[in-house]
Amino acid sequence: MAEPSSDSNPGVTVTIAVSTSDDEARVESCLRSALAQDYPNELVEILVADAMSMDATREIILRVASADSRVRMIDNPKRTRAAALNAIVRAARGEIVVPMDPAGDYGRTHVTKCVQALMSSRAEELAIVPRVMGRTLVERALSAVQKTKLAFTASAEIARDPEAGPALLGAVRRRVFERIGMFDPSTRVDEDDELSHRITQSGGTVTVRRDIVVHKAEASSFKELFRRQYQLGRSRARRTVKERRLASVRTLGPLAIVACGGALVATSSIQPITPFALAAYALMTGAAAVRVARGEGIATIPIAWAAFPVMHAAHGAGFGAGLVRALVRPDWQPTARLDDPEPA
Fold this sequence. Notes:
single chain; alpha/beta; Spore Coat Polysaccharide Biosynthesis Protein SpsA, Chain A; 8 strands
């Protein structure tokens, strides 16, 4: 394999960070993609932090590692992606950390492009925008739904506004964790956005590149859609209380839908508005489902139509539960820094 020339390659050491949790169906493909990157072999290590998987994930990782010394597995008993990235950053030998998600589809030049983009700027982090995709009919429909105006996800923000904030951590200089601290290990989602916010708040800079593409499916089933949206709602509520700020009024959208819908159903016997409100909601989400079908095919209409209430109910319920939990029992600690002793 020919290595990139010194002109195209900054020559810095890189740690590819892979966080896994019961990923037996896709972890090997992710590791093969990481191993096949065109960045020079001697400058790359691949650290896999596994959340004590109960399926064959760990066996697959160890098998791949036995054939290539660049791959190492470390344990992630706290089980969140933020905790996995913390464990990897602490164990890393690379100057730059490049995350690769088992759910993502990465080109062979991904690491090289990320390193070049970061090293050609003074920024401490490179943010990239994932392109949502799906292989099955359900995946395509659920992914497309989350880019519509009725969604409350990063994909929706980007679809509405090309200049919307970064959505995915592409690469980060390891030394930044000495200055601003590690990821909050209790954060379940949005840890990439949280890091970007802390970097900019501390006076650092984040560079955004939209030409470095990662394809990934948002959800492959309604169960996964509900779980992800519930976690997203809880995480955003926790972060709102922790930072004592509301990212935007839209953040309250799902909670408002759940609260208003519940109130209308509970009072349906004493007021005549409920049927009209439910009909209006059905028409609004139905129209959005038809718009989804323009790009994904008419067969996606019923899937997309059903996805909206699932998404709104899960996100709203998660936000409400996260808000109560964060107010009653806050679980955040002072941010540990890279040079601090590793917590027990």
